[in-house]
Design brief:
Helices cover 43% and strands 16% of the residues. It is an alpha/beta fold. It has eight helices and five strands, in the order αββαβααββαααα. The protein has one domain: Nucleotidyltransferase, domain 5 (2-Layer Sandwich), CATH 3.30.420.10. A five-stranded mixed beta sheet has the order 3-2-1-4-5. The protein is globular and about 55 Å long. A hairpin with an 8-residue loop joins strand 1 and strand 2.
Length: 207
């Protein structure tokens, strides 16, 4: 379960940053940056916080409605075009940097430390601390993972309304059997990542 160990070790004004959407064939990569309010560190809602991948969709939706009461949070994204131009690794850092910058504008005070899920950190104007599997170890990162996933999943549901063949409301753009079959049948959309192998193969086969 997550704790405040890493936040406490770093000192005041710590945010957690996590991303979702590295692996899908379609849609942006989304990052969130979160500060847990100092007066909320004993709030009972934290008992329900965990790595977003371990939570049901219903519980994630509930937590996303509750988290604004105990956090400051912001979203950052990198578009499909940026993913194709930069590669997904660098685009993820861009999304994290934007999430951090948006949080700074919201918080309106210096953020001195950023806890980053994973083993690599983007370049930020503060101290960064990478934590492998941080979404299961840090409340700030776990909260960021929940907010980012809920935001991106909802975005893919909206995109599915105008691109109904691919099942994005169910697969969030990941390469499921259904998505791959429909990709081969209907071709790629402007929301597909053209440099990802299954999408590239479909595009190449049409020429």
């Amino acid at each position: 379960m997550p704790s405040f160990k890493f936040e406490t070790d770093c000192g005041p004004t710590v945010c957690g940053i996590d991303e979702v959407g590295r692996g899908p064939l379609a849609g942006p990569v989304v990052a969130s940056a979160v500060i847990i309010r100092p007066d909320a560190m004993n709030d009972p809602i934290l008992d329900a916080i965990n790595d977003s991948k371990k939570l049901s969709a219903k519980k994630r939706a509930f937590l996303c409605k509750a988290l604004p009461k105990i956090t400051f949070s912001a979203i950052g994204m990198a578009s499909v075009e940026e993913i194709d131009r930069l590669n997904i690794y660098q685009a993820t850092f861009v999304a994290m940097q934007r999430a951090y910058n948006n949080l700074c504008q919201l918080y309106q005070q210096p953020i001195q430390h950023a806890l980053i899920d994973g083993n690599k950190a983007p370049v930020l104007p503060c101290q960064t601390h990478t934590i492998v599997k941080g979404d299961s170890k840090s409340f700030s990162i776990a909260s960021a993972s929940i907010i980012a996933k809920e935001y991106r999943d909802n975005l893919m549901v909206k995109l599915a309304e105008t691109h109904q063949h691919y099942g994005w409301e169910r697969n969030a753009g990941y390469g499921t059997r259904e998505h791959l079959e429909m990709l081969r049948k209907h071709g790629a959309t402007r929301h597909h990542r053209k440099t990802f192998k299954p999408v590239h193969e479909v595009i190449s086969s049409t020429y």
